[in-house]
Amino acid sequence: MMDALSVVTQLRDLASEPQNREAIVQDQGCLPGLVLFLDHQDSQVLFSTLQALRYLAECPSNIAIMKHELGMMVSLEHLMEQGEINEEIGVLAKDVYNVLNSPVNNVAVGTPEAPRRKAKSQFFINSSNKKAKSVTLEIQGLDNTDNRGLCEEALLKVKGVISFTFQMALKRCTVRIRSDLATEVRNEINHFLTL
């Protein structure tokens, strides 16, 4: 239970920073993970998850993606129905649901705050998926946690790797890298993972 709470709390804290919101939603693991946490039994985990989603929904470009994320709206509706059990969670779920269902044109488009946020987020090199490419690698030896640990260590040593996720059952690793990486660095990733 404590692990789930710490993960969700970290995501919520990251989402509280406007320059991180677009990158979090576009990351392949963060948003689906938050949707899974909407079914958690612990009320603290639920509340922190809803807070993170509310922060993420403040970015107008995230709304369509979040609204169409598998299980998002259904889970929010379920939490709204369960509002009698925990009123805070019901109210926050309804708030997130309403933001995601509001017309995009009405959400902070004309405010002076919006252009400033956009300019600020472009300053951070990893804040936008436009500057990243995903590469999916098949790794034959990826069949236990020890080998996964070796792959993680190798990937952490490669400059330009933004993030990575493993699909152990398929023996695959999806690596997000900066799009301006030289071919040698891409080859270095392949070399590390074939060892």
UniProtKB/TrEMBL annotation:
Gene3D superfamilies: Leucine-rich Repeat Variant. Its main location: mitochondrion. Pfam families: Arm (PF00514). It comes from the Eukaryota. In association with mitochondrial contact site and cristae organizing system (MICOS) complex components and mitochondrial outer membrane sorting assembly machinery (SAM) complex components may regulate mitochondrial dynamics playing a role in determining mitochondrial length, distribution and motility. Transmembrane segments: none annotated. It comes from Polyodon spathula (North American paddlefish). This is Armadillo repeat-containing protein 1. Interacts with mitochondrial contact site and cristae organizing system (MICOS) complex components IMMT/MIC60 and MICOS10/MIC10. Interacts with mitochondrial outer membrane sorting assembly machinery (SAM) complex components SAMM50 and MTX1. InterPro entries: ARM-like, ARM-type_fold, Armadillo, ARMC1, HMA_dom_sf. It is found in: Mitochondrion outer membrane.
